[in-house]
Each structure stands twice: as structure tokens, then as C-alpha cells.
Amino acid sequence: MTRPDPNGQMIAASPAMLRIDEELRQTARSDAKILLTGESGVGKEVVARLVHRYSSRSPKPFVAMNCAGVPDSLLESELFGHMRGSFTGAYRDKPGLLEQAHGGTIFMDEIGEMSLRMQALLLRFLEDGDIYRVGSERRTSTVDVRVVAATNRVLLDQIASGAFREDLYYRLNVIHLLIPPLRDRREDIQPLVNHYLRVFSEKYAVSNPELSPEVVDSLAQYNWPGNVRELKNLAERLIVRSRGGVVRLEDLPPALMRQPLPSARVLPLRQPGGEHAPVVAAARTTPPASDVAAQLFNRIVADRESFWSVVYTPFIARDLTRNDVRGIITAGLQHTRGNYKMLLELFNMEPADYKRFLNFLRKHQCHMPFQQFRTSEPIRPLAGGPSLV
Ligand SMILES: Nc1ncnc2c1ncn2[C@@H]1O[C@H](COP(=O)(O)OP(=O)(O)OP(=O)(O)O)[C@@H](O)[C@H]1O
Ligand SMILES: [Mg+2]
Predict the structure, then answer these.
(1) Atom from ligand 1 closest to the CA of residue 298
(2) Mutate to test the pocket of ligand 1, among 3, 36, 46 (most ligand atoms within 8 A of CB)
């Protein structure tokens, strides 16, 4: 479950991220637990690694684990280890990630996905650092690890619905750092683009391409629903497809080619008094309402997976609600300003899929009238907002 440090560095130029960097240096002096919140792809893991690197624990291990999608029994044995014979296939005693992180830092990602039973076990561990391996009646050891937890869920909502323990929340939330979405710290975009173009041009041994001024503008104005992960994926794609020379607007994926989005378009609107007043129309590409919808939207837009596999199949299998699908379609139409043909491209489908796509949407009442996306008004998400604590 541990992953190697991808590139290690945190690129930061915006005042918000420079402030976070400063806070990290300060908190690194203590062992206080840290809770990181922010949308998917903003860099929560990058921040967690940095706390470790800035701290006196840096010579010891940094262990990252993801709590999402792992069945309880496996998560428990991964985290706390197990004793030989405790379950089929447990041929020898095995230390868990907490023991492996002894003296260092453990990063627990997607903590909001943990079951109530695992939350109780984690709470017991946080009391005094005692480890009870699976299959052991007694305490196996006591470890000293710094815990950094992260979530892109609204934990307070989860507490209200009984899905997350309040006592665990307050234990983990000694220092709370909220990592802002990339669209709220645009000063970071250009340095990140430069950084990742360099990283990938070295990786693929091609020359670092130049960006045309339109491309630079387009990247600066885009709303980056998938945050830094989306930007990094885009940089890799540009390098892989690069024929050397200059990157032009046509080389960008459809969502970015539609630039400049009217994010700062001055529209003459009639005021009640009869005067024409300049009004800045914000083209906000708000991520879809629910966490699930936001994550799936990111997989389509940032990771370039197809709508058919990411949305259609789970919907037919009843793993997704109609509202999730509507949220994803709404977010997509905000990008394409209501254009369904472009939506097809944005969602990684073939042009020939157009009819099938529209039939699917109509049949399940997920077809949204395009007119509402052509207005200059900011478009609201279906419900709720970006998932931040
Ligand atoms: N400030 C940054 N500088 C350089 N790279 C960054 C920065 N922020 C994020 N990245 C890169 O973007 C990708 C996503 O970052 P990370 O995995 O830390 O996001 P996250 O907030 O943990 O996302 P998720 O909620 O989906 O787990 C990683 O590959 C990371 O290296
Ligand atoms: Mg993460």
C-alpha cells in the first residue's frame, strides 16, 4: 500500500501555498497530528511527505496508506499486522504498516472511508500507540509514529450522519490544513506546468516544448476540476504527443481548447435604472455535487477514462444514482457551454456514440437542457458545493 515518492517536490508560488509551506515547517517541529482536507488532486499527499521531510523524523520511514476500497479484514492486517495462523494464508508473523513506520510518519489517506469498526481500532491505537496484531490476544508492541490523515470528504457531515466518530475526528484534527483547489491559486499554474513539462521531457528524453501564448492563457484561465493531478497528466500527454517545437491550442484537449472561457468577460447588462453596467460573468466550472460524482468526473477529465466505463457501467449495475449521473453531465456541460457534441469528446467517447449517449441520457432522465449552460450567469451545482471540510 506504500507508494514511492513520485517526484517529491512541492511547487508553490501562490501566497496560499507559501503560507502552507511556512505552517508545515512550524508544525514539523512538533508531533501534533495533522488533518489535511481539500479536493481530489490538490496535493494532500505531497504536503504529508513534506511535513515528514521537514521534521526530525525524516531519516525514519514515511509510510502512506489508502483507506478507500480496502475490505476491513485486509485493512486491519495491513495496518496492525498479523500473527501466523490467524487466517488462511497467514504463514508467518507480519508487522503492519504502523510498526513499519516506527519512528517516522504514517499518512492515512481517505480516512473518511474507514468503517466504524476500523475507526474504533484506530482510536484505540491513538490512545497510547499500542499495537494488537490480528490474531494476538495481547499487545504486540508499542510504536511511535506521527499520524497525518487526509480526506476529500466533509467529515463534519459524516459525523452528523453517524458515519464518522466525533472523538476520532477531534483526535486527528489537532492541526487542520485546508489545501485550496488550483483554480483558487492561479499563481501556481505556470510554475507547475513548467515543472512537469521539464520532468516529463526528461523522462521521455524529448526536448522541452515551447507553449504558444494562447496555450499559456488557456492554462491560466482553465478551472482545473482535477487540480494538480489533471495538470500533471496534461503535461505528460503534451510531452508524449509532442512533435517538438511549439504546443498550440489545437494540441490541447477539448476542455482547454474552448478558451478563453468567458471567465472574465465583460457583458453589458441592463441595470434597473436603465444604465448599461459592466458585469463580470464568472464561468465557474464547479465540480459535481457529490463526492462520488466529483471523483468520477475527475477520472474522466483528468485521467481520460471513458464515460462508458466510469459512469454508464456502474449506473446500469445500480452502483450510481441518477443524481450522480446528472451531476457529472452538468459539470461537463459547464465546460462545453452546453454543447453535447463537445461533451462526447470531453468524456472520451467516439463521435459515433452520439446517438447512444443521448438515448441513454433521455431514457434515464439525465438529459439537461443545453440552454441553461449558454447563459452568462454562474452555474450552480445541483446540490452542495466542493467537498471541503
Ligand atoms: N504543489 C505541487 N507540486 C508538485 N506536484 C504536485 C503538487 N501538488 C500535487 N502534485 C502532484 O499532483 C498529483 C496529485 O497530488 P496528491 O496525490 O498529493 O493529491 P491528493 O490531494 O492526495 O489527491 P486525492 O484526494 O485524489 O488522493 C501527484 O502526482 C502530485 O505529485
Ligand atoms: Mg491522496
Answers:
(1) 26
(2) 46
